């Protein structure tokens, strides 16, 4: 692993993720996340669904698969219009930060091809590639983001003890290892088999609540 992974996964990297709760805000309002234990259950479910999907896309982009093909695959794996729009906004913001940190012709080409933004996991994987990282590192960055974002958001939403939120992430670490490994393995298969080899687990409740959340007149987070 390179130190570039630490920079990329740092919550202070200006990629816009701090404005998104990953569905946690809607889960808190619905009463499904109320404490550390329910946060852990929420993050575990997100890790093995949306997190695995994102990790697979990121790993595939880092492996060198055509990012336009991956962007289409990401669209197919994101049934919620609100989440598709958010993924492209985040991808655009990440692209801006990454082109300053690790400029590369591949990033320039993707930005020119999709000026409104590619899906964030695809951009993340291409950024990892530009930073000299491989599929495994890209998968780790995506998987960690899938759980760290909601955990940080719930600290703000519930005034949850940040030590408790950090303990949730620590307990999920072995599962995060497994998700990253599965995603990287799938990305390597996709080099020969195409994007259908990438993970596509469903998270219908996240999709439904994302659409509901997008219609709220007042909310703390964008998603």
Automatic annotation (TrEMBL):
Domain of life: Bacteria
Entry's localization field: Cytoplasm
InterPro entries recorded: UreF, UreF_sf
Keywords annotated in UniProt: Chaperone, Cytoplasm, Nickel insertion
Purpose: Required for maturation of urease via the functional incorporation of the urease nickel metallocenter.
Subunit structure: UreD, UreF and UreG form a complex that acts as a GTP-hydrolysis-dependent molecular chaperone, activating the urease apoprotein by helping to assemble the nickel containing metallocenter of UreC. The UreE protein probably delivers the nickel.
Family listed: Belongs to the UreF family.
UniProt name for this protein: Urease accessory protein UreF
Lineage: Bacteria, Bacillati, Actinomycetota, Actinomycetes, Kitasatosporales
């Amino acid at each position: 692993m390179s130190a570039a992974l630490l920079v990329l996964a740092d919550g202070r990297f200006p990629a816009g993720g701090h404005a998104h709760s990953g569905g946690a805000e809607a889960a808190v309002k619905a009463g499904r996340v109320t404490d550390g234990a329910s946060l852990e259950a929420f993050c575990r479910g997100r890790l093995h669904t949306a997190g695995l999907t994102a990790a697979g896309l990121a790993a595939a982009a880092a492996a060198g698969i055509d990012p336009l093909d991956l962007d289409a695959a990401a669209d197919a794996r994101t049934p919620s219009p609100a989440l598709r729009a958010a993924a492209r906004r985040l991808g655009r913001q990440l692209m801006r930060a990454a082109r300053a940190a690790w400029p590369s012709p591949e990033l320039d080409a993707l930005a020119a091809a999709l000026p409104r933004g590619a899906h964030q996991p695809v951009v993340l994987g291409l950024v990892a590639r530009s930073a000299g990282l491989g599929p495994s590192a890209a998968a780790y960055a995506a998987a960690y983001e899938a759980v760290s974002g909601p955990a940080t958001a719930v600290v703000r939403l519930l005034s949850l003890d940040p030590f408790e939120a950090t303990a949730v992430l620590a307990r999920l670490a072995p599962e995060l290892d497994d998700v990253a490994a599965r995603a990287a393995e799938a990305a390597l298969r996709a080099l020969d088999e195409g994007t259908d080899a990438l993970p596509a687990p469903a998270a219908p409740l996240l999709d439904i609540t994302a659409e509901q959340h997008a219609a709220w007149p007042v909310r703390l987070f964008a998603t």
